[in-house]
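How a chain folds remains the central question behind the approach discussed here. This step matters because it turns folding into a mapping between discrete strings. The sequence in question and its structure tokens are set out directly beneath this paragraph.
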Amino acid sequence: MTTATLGTDPSGTVELDRWPGVATVPSGLKVWVASPVARVLFHKAVARLPLRVQMPGGAMSGGGGSRSPLMIIHRPDDFAARVGDSGLIGFGESYMAGDWEASDLTAVLEVFAAKVATLIPDFLQRLRGLYIPKQPRSEHNSTKNTRSNISRHYDLSNELFELFLDDTMTYSSALFDDLSVGQAPSWDSFAEAQHRKIDRLLDGAGVVAGARVLEIGTGWGELAIRAAQRGASVRSVTLSVEQQELAAKRISAAGLTDKVQVDLLDYRHVEGEYDAVVSVEMIEAVGHQYWGSYFQKIDSLLAPGGRAAIQAITMPHDRMLATRNTYTWVHKYIFPGGFLPSVRAIEDVTERMTTLRVRERMSMGDHYAETLRLWDERFSARTAEASILGFDAVFARMWHFYLCYSEAGFRSGYLDVQQVILDRRN
């Protein structure tokens, strides 16, 4: 097994076979040309940002004051090589490798997220298609590929997700009671906030006793349980073997096996008629090439007078158009095949390709920022337990970066999450 040093700690190592993009610093002609360019572009960008950047030896750059977030670069040559070789993928890999740290990772990433559209000069933005990698066809969410894409994230380990999720095992944005009181939500309010989110979706979809409910994307079963407790009959579909197994156990423990059926099935293969279709943060895994198929399937399954309720992470429409063919760090390490829609895209696709129309929607991005903060605090406190499960130090840095990167997106307003209710209108 070949290893490389992780970060500034000589006792830390990276397995080359497991983390090739982290263990090896890129080299060759491309890097020789691109690395100096990346270095110049980075320092020009941070000079305009409310950020401090500390180099080895203590030299400082950046446009921030003494209270601005601090980014500490330990290995500037490796950092420039990775960013020059693969842009934002390299930026994330350089953090995983320990080339840089942050006093507050979310705060540093929030500064970048707030200016993401202007960090790179316009003329280079127009040339992005020439140097930014494209999403591999093997990760497009066809019926052939989707199960593999899903398993690479959701089948990591139920025990891993249990380390940082609350007792409801809900892996989506909570809806807290009140974020305007000036006090951040605590872990004690988490399960209640998750139930509030679920109940609002079920209300929007009109789920009552006797309703036939289809859930696209089971998670670990909490929404199905809440719907069944209302007296509905629920069919839930997932492509995650691990989620199906634990969801079935949780449903059985709740005494609801006669009310809930969980199938290992692609949503495109579902048949039947349902009074309500509910799907929480699953559209992000559909892929923009298949949004039409997704909403057409919901349309075909919905009974007359029925409603659909989805919860979707969204991004600005112009950024969605600019990045829809880009292969990112999130694709490579977290959600292969995923892509976020815009609100406009959801409205356009449903209007052009279905009889469904958006009846109402609610933005709750601030709630997702708090959800991610709580998840990250919980995971960071339990990395030793993750290590026992077989998730090494590189994975821990990757997961921390993923949670903070996502939180920064919501805090900056670059990302949002919407509850969207759809029905048919004459």
